[in-house]
Amino acid sequence: MKKTAIAIATLAAALGAANASAQAYIGGGVSATRINVDCDGIQSCDKSDTGGKLYGGWGFGNGLSAELGYITFGKATASDSGASLDVKVHGFTVAAAYRAPIASSWGLTGRLGLASLKTKLSASAGGLSASDDERHTAPYFGVAADYAFTPALKLELSADFSRAKYDGEKAAVRSLGLGLRYDF
């Protein structure tokens, strides 16, 4: 939690120091997600789902910007002999981003930062159910390619990655999405 507070304070300071060429933007989209939980010996296991993200940023010029966002990595489901377990991962991100134009209407963006993720487990067996969750901070990174319909509106194909954690166990999470970005 302390790392997240430091990252947010750093982002706020950077936003406050922005010059007149700064530009705000927002974006969001839907994605195909995967939570790489260990399913060895499990009768039925589905690690893929649908997720999404929303984000906003502040560009400082020369392609560099700071972003805040919310991302959901969907759900993984396992079941065996009448028992089932669902694992959901979602949270907030803070990142530095760099967008480089590669052609007149095309660009590439790289993101690097931290994610404050909540991993929630829900289990049921024999008519009984229980759930628990854990929040942690993990590295977050992403890449995106975009196509500009207009100078303000871009179609973005993105890939975002982090790591879920619960009770000492870790699982890689990823999101492959399609969305829109609007620059103000």
Structural class: mainly beta
The fold-level CATH name is Porin
Distance between the termini: 32 Å
Per DSSP, the total helix count is: 1
- Unreliable segments of 5+ consecutive residues: none
Task: Please write the CATH class name.
Answer: Mainly Beta
Query: Could you describe the largest sheet, including whether it forms a barrel?
Result: 8 strands, antiparallel, barrel
What's the arrangement of strands in the largest beta sheet?
Answer: 1-3-4-5-6-7-8-9
Q: What is the level-2 CATH architecture name?
A: Beta Barrel
Order of helices and strands: HEEEEEEEEE
Tally of individual domains:
1
Anisotropy-based shape = elongated
> How many individual β-strands?
9
**In what range is the share of β-strand residues?**
over 45%
The overall pLDDT, averaged over residues, is 90
CA radius of gyration: 18 Å
Kindly state the percentage of residues in helix.
Answer: under 10%
